[in-house]
From TrEMBL, chain A:
Main location, first listed in the record: periplasm
Entry's localization field: Periplasm
Protein name listed in UniProt: ABC transporter substrate-binding protein
Highest rank taxon of the organism: Bacteria
Signal sequence bounds: 1-25
Species of origin: Bradyrhizobium iriomotense
Claim: Signal is one of the keywords in the record: yes
PANTHER family (UniProt xref): ARABINOSE-BINDING PROTEIN-RELATED (PTHR43649), POLYGALACTURONAN_RHAMNOGALACTURONAN-BINDING PROTEIN YTCQ (PTHR43649:SF33)
Pfam families tied to this protein: SBP_bac_8
Family: Belongs to the bacterial solute-binding protein 1 family.
Automatic annotation (TrEMBL), chain B:
Protein name: Sugar ABC transporter permease
Entry keywords, A to Z: Cell membrane, Membrane, Transmembrane, Transmembrane helix, Transport
Similarity section: Belongs to the binding-protein-dependent transport system permease family.
Organism ancestry: Bacteria, Pseudomonadati, Pseudomonadota, Alphaproteobacteria, Hyphomicrobiales
Chief location: membrane
Every ABC transmembrane type-1 domain range: 67-279
Compartment annotation: Cell membrane
PANTHER family: BLR7065 PROTEIN (PTHR43005), SPERMIDINE_PUTRESCINE TRANSPORT SYSTEM PERMEASE PROTEIN (PTHR43005:SF1)
Keyword Transmembrane found: yes
Origin: domain of life: Bacteria
Pfam family, one: BPD_transp_1
Residues annotated as transmembrane: 7-31, 67-89, 101-124, 153-177, 198-220, 258-283
């Protein structure tokens, strides 16, 4: 009897407590009470993580708040074109814009973005209990402004490493292993250095030819008219040779050339470009028309044995058999490195590759800042992260790594997520330059000429260094 | 007096639209062209720069290269379209089976947005996926890689433009041919002219106004080609297809160099006007000028 009374009392107390506490969903409907019927518009790049936002998170947010969300997913070029025009002209067309961590410094310099830390402090009723910047990985630091007390200006929605992907099935094939060892004298495994990478690329290209397979040794993101090729070089290849921050030395008056204190045309950069161009010999013929999207498609089509691929594609390449021919055959590893680069990265002097990602921010020109703020908090909750991570191989919150769904996906992707968790610190985002697109546009056309063979690596890099310095002088950064 | 007021009232909407969307932006570009303005520079505000941008242009090799490249593209594309369009128009004048069906199919490219045309041709020409590289290699042993070979990329952009715009030429010339009087042709036959003579001395002079109008429209269009080429090659390989419109777009938008980009636009407009004027003088006005005694 006593026990029954105690149990009843406890049950009653729990019942009363739970009815008195606001339900999780109640915050969203309460906070959005005055904003129901508002429509917020966003623009983002058409990528797996962004498509998940458009197709899943935006409708869920509308259901929870009554605020409609219209998301435009478009190409990378068009996205920046549209949002910059909108913010520049202050038209207020967009309430949410995608920002890559490499362009935020340009936007901050122009005062384009709303200070989220301040907005949440000023509107306590809009501060979601589940949203906490402290939950995020260190990637969130790229979206803070150190000149404004590290206030947050954007909420990370994707982050991933551009890593080395290889065909596990081919690397594990006994016949392949035997042939490789016979030719090169060492065991076939993910390459530790660039020489090994080239050996593997050469081997599989020959293997593809001799076995009448549509197989080449390496992907190469070498579009001859799109900056994706230049990005692959400066973000993913040069760091593995020890050239960091595009070879521009901010401490030496933004010098690019060796003679002025930069490293854009130094011996490591020449070696990096020579290696990059040499890989074209072992790459599928579509490589000179390939941007980041086509590289993923090439790998997923089973046309390359290895390559550097943006991590946002790792999950679908490894698991989605409606889009990928290599499901269950994908291995991940760190990219090949020159001696000393790993030590540089571990000591914080350098990095071994690109930590890519982006965030959503609110332009100061937005006409629906409150509704947009709620949306950013909604996508930053821990509860929506796991499915998103599985769909887009992106992780922005520390806790997401431990979610069972992510752990299961980790198994299927050869532990890509674990690699990102444990080795992500060795990768880095773009340098904190406010002239990102301007320098790119000045030097990329010269870089394309190196791909077509019009210029040698040394000639191209010399011209690129001169063009970068001239552009920086013209922009007023280089005195 | 009343009729004059009514006339102005009826013209007013057109004039307003012309002023707001035509003259207004033109004056804005004109003003910006004389400034040094990059919104991501250390100083992002616009400053009056006199003729500095125009002086820079004269020594800007990539810009001058893109201009010459555009002339080449325009010449080959428009010439091909006129020749092909004329023969197709003549073909459609004949009683052929399924003529109506063919005319409809032939007009379809005109309805496709340039960006979609570029995307379609990109899919057609991507090695490993597109049918063109596959069949050209299989049947003729041609290694089609427009991302690698400059001449192939240039030819591909010309063919794409011809595919897209020849129907316009065909339709224009078809209308012109349909309205030609029969008498000059009958007279020429009575005089014993052969087909070549009929074409050269009768058909061509009678069609000249229609051909010239079409040439002017197509030349002006081809000189400002951007979206199709941007989608197909991105201006590459290197700068092999970086036509002037695409070059200006990259300077103005991704690079945000508004002042210099505006100056480029103005110079390109000036060159277009001069080119059209020269064509007009060479093909029309010269023969209409009174001869000096």
């Amino acid at each position: 009897m006593k026990l029954r009374t105690t149990v009843s009392a406890v049950a009653l107390a729990i019942g009363l407590m739970s009815s008195a506490m606001p339900a999780w969903a109640d915050f969203w409907s309460d906070a959005a009470k005055d904003l129901k019927g508002t429509t917020i518009r966003g623009v983002t790049e058409s990528t797996p993580p962004s498509n998940y936002v458009k197709d899943v998170l935006a409708p869920a947010f509308t259901k929870a708040t009554g605020i409609k969300v219209e998301f435009e997913t478009t190409s990378w070029d068009q996205m920046f074109d549209k949002e910059i025009k909108d913010m520049e002209a202050k038209t207020g067309l967009y309430d949410v814009v995608y920002i890559e961590q490499d362009i935020i410094y340009s936007y901050l310099a122009r005062g384009f973005l709303v200070d989220l830390t301040k907005s949440m402090a000023d509107n306590a009723k809009l501060k979601a209990p589940e949203f906490d910047p402290a939950n995020f990985t260190t990637f969130i630091d790229y979206f803070k402004d150190p000149t404004k007390g590290n206030d947050l200006f954007a909420v990370p929605m994707e982050s991933f490493i551009k890593t080395y992907l290889y065909r596990k099935d081919l690397f594990g094939d006994a016949e392949v292993q035997k042939a490789f060892k016979a030719k090169y004298g060492y065991d076939l495994a993910p390459p530790k250095d660039h020489k090994q990478y080239t050996d593997i690329a050469e081997f599989f290209t020959q293997w593809g030819k001799s076995h009448d397979m549509q197989l080449w040794g390496s992907t190469v993101q070498a579009h001859t008219g799109h900056p994706a090729s230049w990005y692959e070089f400066v973000e993913s290849v040069e760091p593995t040779f020890g050239v960091y921050n595009w070879g521009i030395n901010a401490q030496k008056n933004y010098a690019a050339s060796v003679k002025n204190g930069g490293s854009m045309n130094g011996p490591q950069a020449v070696a990096a470009l020579t290696w990059f161009l040499n890989n074209l010999k072992y790459a599928p013929p579509e490589s000179t028309q390939s941007t980041w999207d086509e590289i993923a498609a090439t790998f997923a089509a089973g046309r390359a044995a290895q390559g550097l691929v943006y991590g946002e594609n790792a999950a679908w390449i490894a698991t989605n058999d409606s889009k990928s021919k290599v499901v269950g055959k994908v291995g991940v590893a760190l990219p090949p490195l020159e001696p000393g680069v790993l030590e540089d990265a571990e000591s914080g002097k350098g990095y071994i590759g690109y930590f890519d990602g982006g965030a959503f921010a609110i332009p100061t020109s937005s006409k629906n800042k409150e509704a947009a703020l709620l949306f950013l908090e909604f996508i930053g909750q821990p509860s929506v992260q796991a499915d998103w991570a599985v769909a887009g191989s992106r992780i922005t919150l520390k806790s997401t790594y431990d979610d069972p769904k992510v752990k299961a996906q980790d198994e299927k992707t050869d532990h890509y997520y674990t690699l990102m968790k444990e080795k992500g610190k060795l990768f880095a985002g773009a340098p904190t330059y406010p002239f990102h697109a301007q320098v790119r546009e000045a030097v990329a056309p010269i870089f394309y000429r190196a791909i077509t063979g019009e210029l040698t690596p040394q000639q191209a890099l010399d011209k690129m260094a001169d063009a970068a310095e001239a552009e920086l002088t013209q922009l007023g950064y280089r005195k | 007096m009343r009729s004059q007021t009514t006339g102005w009232l009826l013209l007013a909407p057109t004039l307003v639209i012309l002023l707001v969307f035509g003259l207004g932006p033109f004056i804005y570009v004109l003003v910006v062209g004389f400034t040094n303005w990059n919104s991501f520079a250390a100083d992002p505000t616009a400053h009056f720069a006199g003729v500095q941008n125009f002086r820079r242009l004269v020594f800007d090799d990539p810009f001058l290269h893109s201009l010459w490249l555009t002339f080449g593209f325009t010449f080959f594309a428009v010439l091909s379209e006129i020749v092909l369009g004329y023969f197709l128009a003549q073909l459609l004048m004949r009683d052929l089976p399924f003529k109506g069906f063919f005319r409809t199919i032939h007009t379809l490219p005109l309805m496709v947005a340039p960006i979609a045309v570029g995307a379609t041709w990109r899919l057609l020409t991507v090695p490993g996926l597109g049918p063109l590289p596959y069949y050209l290699d299989r049947w003729l042993g041609i290694d089609l890689r427009i991302g690698t070979f400059a001449d192939q990329a240039f030819i591909a952009t010309v063919i794409m433009d011809v595919w897209h715009w020849t129907p316009l030429v065909t339709l224009t010339l078809l209308a012109a041919i349909s309205s030609l009087p029969k008498e000059p042709f009958e007279q020429a036959q009575i005089d014993g002219a052969n087909r070549a003579q009929v074409f050269w001395y009768v058909t061509l002079p009678l069609l000249k106004p229609a051909i010239l109008a079409t040439v002017f429209i197509r030349v002006m269009d081809a000189l400002r080609t951007v979206d199709e080429v941007w989608m197909l090659t991105g201006g590459g390989p290197a700068a092999a297809t970086r036509y002037v419109g695409l070059h200006i777009w990259r300077v103005v938008f991704p690079k945000t160099d508004y002042g210099y980009g505006a100056a480029m636009s103005l110079l390109t407009l000036y060159v277009t006007i001069v080119l059209c004027w020269l064509m007009y003088v060479a093909l029309v006005a010269r023969r209409e000028l009174p001869r000096s005694e």
